């Protein structure tokens, strides 16, 4: 689908790059020649992912242990990385989320999600953006949202609020930083199973509903599909796209809005009866 060297010469920082979707996206970037820095909280997880990706693709993969909830830690990490070579592309992927009834959340529970998703994303974006602007370099920021940024999401309200904030950041900075050659884009995935997200969001009781009722294409997304979309959006081939969030959800967003989905379950007999 892509030129094999599409991302050669690009140095890409991926937050939350050690596991889940961040790992899948990183792997695809490496296959296309990018040099990577994987950032996360747990050194051993990062090292193991970096070794696997480097072994499979032959490109250099660095790691940076950093909790993005700390603005000081983020700035120190980015300063250290820049001392070797500037970052060209930032992927804001680190997230935290859990299912809960909102009226029972403590303020610490709200902060646990907002600090990572909203504040961490702002810290990383500003740390890279100021260095791009001061150095007169172009740059690209891709943020991983979820459908909830566009539509809201009951029972994961802090996450929906935080991702909506990241969407607002994407649109705002696309305008403010456009003249510096900095693009900001986002992806808004529907359900893409990962151990982390499923542990937090899909307890067994939720796994019984038929997929066809909640996703028009009748299946979950595959990691490679999301990784390919991210690859296109950060590549120079997408150089005129900025301030945009691309939904990748198997049509989930349009369920409900497009009409009553109970009709999807109707049998031929029911349709025949209606027609007659
Ligand atoms: C209610 C909870 C809770 C839960 C934590 N808290 N989990 N409250 N239900 N399931 C509360 C705690 O009681 C505590 O409040 C406060 O939150 C902080 O808890 P800690 O465990 O100390 O927080 P922390 O170590 O920061 O970890 C919280 C976390 C963690 C950030 C959410 O689970 C984490 O690190 N997750 C990363 C992995 C992850 O979440 N992956 C899924 C991402 S999926 P009190 O008041 O008791 O002190 C995703 C896709 C979005 O983002 C899709 C949207 C539809």
Explain what this protein looks like in three dimensions.
The chain has ten helices and seven strands. The protein is α/β, with parallel strands linked by helices and 276 residues long. It has one domain: Rossmann fold (3-Layer(aba) Sandwich). It has a seven-stranded parallel beta sheet with strand order 3-2-1-4-5-6-7, with helices on both faces. Strand 2, helix 2 and strand 3 (61-65) form a beta-alpha-beta unit. Helix 1 (20-31) crosses helix 9. The protein binds hexanoyl-coenzyme A. Hexanoyl-coenzyme A (HXC) binds at residues 95-98, 100, 106, 108-109, 112-113, 116, 146, 148, 153, 156, 159, 196-197, 200.
Feature tags:
276 residues, alpha/beta, seven-stranded parallel β-sheet, 10 helices, 7 strands, globular, binds hexanoyl-coenzyme A, peroxisome, fatty acid metabolism, oxidoreductase, fatty acid biosynthesis
Short summary:
The chain is α/β, with parallel strands linked by helices and 276 residues long.
Give the SSE map:
Layout: E1 11-15, H1 20-31, E2 35-40, H2 43-57, E3 61-65, H3 71-84, E4 89-92, H4 107-135, E5 139-144, H5 148-151, H6 157-176, E6 182-189, H7 195-201, H8 211-214, H9 223-234, E7 244-248, H10 268-275
Parallel strand pairs: 1-2, 1-4, 2-3, 4-5, 5-6, 6-7
This protein binds hexanoyl-coenzyme A.
Hexanoyl-coenzyme A binds at residues 95-98, 100, 106, 108-109, 112-113, 116, 146, 148, 153, 156, 159, 196-197, 200.
Keywords: Fatty acid biosynthesis, Fatty acid metabolism, Lipid biosynthesis, Lipid metabolism, NADP, Oxidoreductase, Peroxisome, Phosphoprotein
Subunit structure: Interacts with PEX5, probably required to target it into peroxisomes.
Catalytic activity: (2E)-tetradecenoyl-CoA + NADPH + H(+) = tetradecanoyl-CoA + NADP(+); a (2E)-enoyl-CoA + NADPH + H(+) = a 2,3-saturated acyl-CoA + NADP(+); (2E)-octenoyl-CoA + NADPH + H(+) = octanoyl-CoA + NADP(+); (2E)-hexenoyl-CoA + NADPH + H(+) = hexanoyl-CoA + NADP(+)
